[in-house]
Amino acid sequence: MGRRASRLLLAAALACSVGTARAAPDPVKGASPDRHCRPGATLLDLEPRTEPEWYGLYVGDKKVGWLRTSSALETRDGKRVRVAQEEMLVEALVGPRKVRREVLEERVYEPGKGGRLLSLRSTFRGDGGDRTVHVTCGPSSCHAEIASPDGKRTADIPHPGETAEQVEAPRLAALTCRTVSGNQLQSDDLRVKRMTSRYAGRSRVGGAGVEVPVSVVEELEEGDRVAPRVLVSDEGRVLETRVGDGMVVKVEPMETARRLDLIDLFSTLRVPLPGPLPRDVPMAITYAMKGIPRGFDLDDERQRAVAGPGGETILTVTARPFAGKDVPRGKPAPRGDADQAATIEIDWEAPSIRALAEATVGGTPGTWAASRRLSRAVFERIEKVYGQSADRASDILRQGKGDCTEHTRLFVALCRAAGIRAREVKGLVYASYGQGGPGLYWHAWAEVKVGDGWIAVDPTFGQDVADATHVALGRGTRQDAISLVGALQVTRADAKRP
User: Fold this and answer.
1) What is the pLDDT of residues 44-91, one digit of tens each?
2) Residue 304 clears pLDDT 50, i.e. is over it
3) Domains in the chain, please, with CATH?
4) Cα 458 from Cα 446, distance rounded (Å)
């Protein structure tokens, strides 16, 4: 539940926070003993959820959306099945524009223990583009149909191995006091992710003048560095999910859940800086940062982090012009690895994407030379508009406008169409827009692989090499950077030429 809510926030370009929310409680020593644990329990032992449950979605102390969930046994076409539904809405201002994104999802499973996924239907509406994804599964494979205003596409994929236990994984982990793991098919890009819900102990939460015991479950996608925390009551009700210190999904009455605060997330939710930063390349900038969890790896070819005093992380980002030897481009690989493949969002096989890539770099054999030409083409072609979002690269090209997400996604698609390995990067970048002084804002850019190394490129800013104010927090499909929302502080930033 929290995982899909955080992905929706990222898709809406709202991954920022004011940092006023309290952290989820840690497991408490001496809290209620684990008498509630039923290690041998199964999905069939969970209390049924006969009525929909409503949740408010908060960033900091402001509500930006709501979530409705349900899971029940039904009879369809004369067969008993388990049906799980989620409906989400996010609405906020991004600069001068109101952004609204809705997602409705239904998953149908066989009814019993270990019941396999039979179908999935997701409908996306609003900013990011309208589309419907319908997946039907047999014993070993699934057939997907993706419909959007510009037509319909199909794809056949292996069965993800998803079972009904994944719908109730936090509740099941809380009941059994054990770890529940399994695959889950991601509806926005048809990616299969490995999810683990781990029982982390007991805690107490207060409300209405009383304290009640709860189970704490950590929910991790394979490769995550920080786990969202889910609080489950002894009656088996999910009370809230906290993603880092800044985002929370908490149970509320329907009337309360649907009341939203309309706030300008872009201008108010930033990481303040003690002063302006240079954008020159070459340059090395050393940041003293608070709020980076232990074990949150930041090191790469441009960044090096060491532990500082008082729990700080000292991170040095170094940007240098590319001085290596250019290498020939490869060949496009629609079914290649994660840095090559065509996906629902990076749909580089679309004729318009392939045509633009060929027109731009058809006579440019070098990987680095072609990357620079494609980055400049995106910078010049796409109008800079905050909050004008589209999910698919082909839609971005047709729309001709967008913010950093749109620039980056189109650039990555063009690179892959030209036989260049490329991936999206999420993190922070320096800007000073006049709202309270200089700060680091949540941003997206790209990396391209030239030879054995990755080079950071920012097509939104028109930078062949992204400057040292770019702080990378996550790459590709990794989404756990959302856990840092609301927690980050920069106490010092020193720049010098390397």
Assistant:
1) 999 888 789 999 988 877 888 999 999 999 999 999 999 999 999 988
2) yes
3) 2-265 (no CATH), 289-496 (3.10.620.30)
4) 6
Mean per-residue pLDDT of the chain: 87
Q: CA angle, 438 as apex, 437 and 442 as ends, to 5°?
A: 120
pLDDT winner (highest mean) among 27-41, 84-98, 344-358, 467-481: 344-358
* The token pair that represents 173 in the structure block: 């982990």
**CA pair distance 146, 385, nearest whole angstrom:** 27
Using CA atoms, how far apart are residues 332 and 421, in angstroms rounded to an integer?
A: 9
Separation of alpha carbons 23 and 66, rounded Å: 20
DSSP class of residue 43?
G
pTM of the entire structure?
0.78
DSSP characters over 408-468: HHHHHHHHHHTT--EEEEEEEEEE--SSSS-EEEEEEEEEEEETTEEEEEBTTTTBSS--T
User: Please, what's the b/e burial string for 240-272 (b: 16 or more CB within 10 A of its CB; e: otherwise)?
Assistant: bbbbbbbbbbbbbeeeebeebeebebbbebbbe
